[in-house]
Specification:
By secondary structure, this protein is α+β, with helices and mostly antiparallel strands. It has helices at 10-17, 25-40, 47-51, 60-68, 74-95, 167-174, 188-199, 220-228, 248-254, 317-325, 329-339, 351-375, 383-409, 412-419; strands at 101-112, 124-127, 139-152, 155-164, 208-213, 232-237, 242-243, 246-247, 261-266, 272-283, 290-297, 306-310. Helix 12 crosses helix 13 (383-409). The protein has two domains: 10-70 and 383-419, no CATH class; 74-336, Alpha-Beta Complex (Transposase Inhibitor Protein From Tn5, Chain A, domain 1), CATH 3.90.350.10. It is built from 14 helices and twelve strands.
Amino acid sequence: MLTRILHHSEKLCTFLNQLDVELSQPQRRHILNMADALLVCEDKKTLAALQRQFVEAPDASNMADFLRISPWRANDMRAALRAHQVTWLIAEAERIAAPKVIYINIDDSLGEKDKDTRHLEPVAWFFDHSESTRTKPRYKNAFCYVACTMRVGPNVATVDLQLYLREKTVRRLNRKRPKERRLPFRSKYRIARQMLVELAPLLPKGWKVYVQFDSWYASRRLIKFVCRLRWHVTCGLKCNRRLNGKRIDAHAQALRHRWYTRVSVTTADGDKRTYYVRRQDGRLAQVPYDVRVYFSKRHPREKSPAYIACTDLACSAKQALQGYTWRWSCETVNFYLKTQLGLQDFRVQSYEAVDKYIVAVHLAWAYVEQRFAQERSAQVRTYGDIIRQHRDEHAIDWLKGAIEMAVETGDPELVLQRFLRLET
């Protein structure tokens, strides 16, 4: 069996040491093992597969116990990651004299599990709005999580990842739990609001803050909450929302003879894209703040425009749409977390153990994000390049260790026995 990790990555150790979190030495070693193996393992990232990456590693059950019964709190690590990510983003923006503008993006996603999975507590059947159509609704056996990313200047960081449980799932789990271990139900609105509450004291005063989300989060309660923080909202809207007492699609129809404004924005992959935009100012139903709604089309003859609202009336159409395109960072995070870091590969059953696993994945991903910002170049253009580079560094360290042991012992069988973990 070919192993891959001889020593912990020095850069990953340095990153963990920068976090203000109290962990015992065994706990620190376990979370380093897990984060390092998540980055190196190319197979399905079960705990047994992660354990097989190490030349010298404890039993796989130790990793499971670290998630199930070890007395550390996922929220403590989550808070330390959040504070470190925000501090780093602000410091980098000040170093390069970037504009004092912060974009906070909120979105949720499903991590698909096998349709026969039954005993993992966060897993349930969810409606998949991205694959459903008007005539064919789609449901997935999956777990749901809410991601929050933050962009300041050219840098992006994931500042929060939290599990979401359906109300029906919470009731089912609480029936079998003692009173002191019962789980509170938190809607996606409550999770998003709590994320913003915990971010607020970390942000510097005097900076302009935009909170961005899609139409599924554009409730009057969340919009009003963000405005009470003296921040701005940029969000998608559904066609049946009312502006000045009239449906938004009716406003779009009434403006059909008005000239379009051509707005060119830069997409996440660096391409230029032109949108044809009209706008209308007013107030949404039950929202006591002025908003500007943009009716955006990719082509003048497109039948269904996108509706985007912004509470910053001093913001131009180009600034609003360019900022909203940066919400794509949530999709980038979802892609890498699922395909490269094994977010949906967990097998532990309890909600608390899964929550700790997600924090370990978040730790590994935060390390990748920060390292990418520091080493971005013509050779390092994507997060995948950083993950590949991390694996290459372990391969070099592993090969050096094998050669040094072969020179010292002169016994190739002993080297193979150790580095391939062959049974004697």
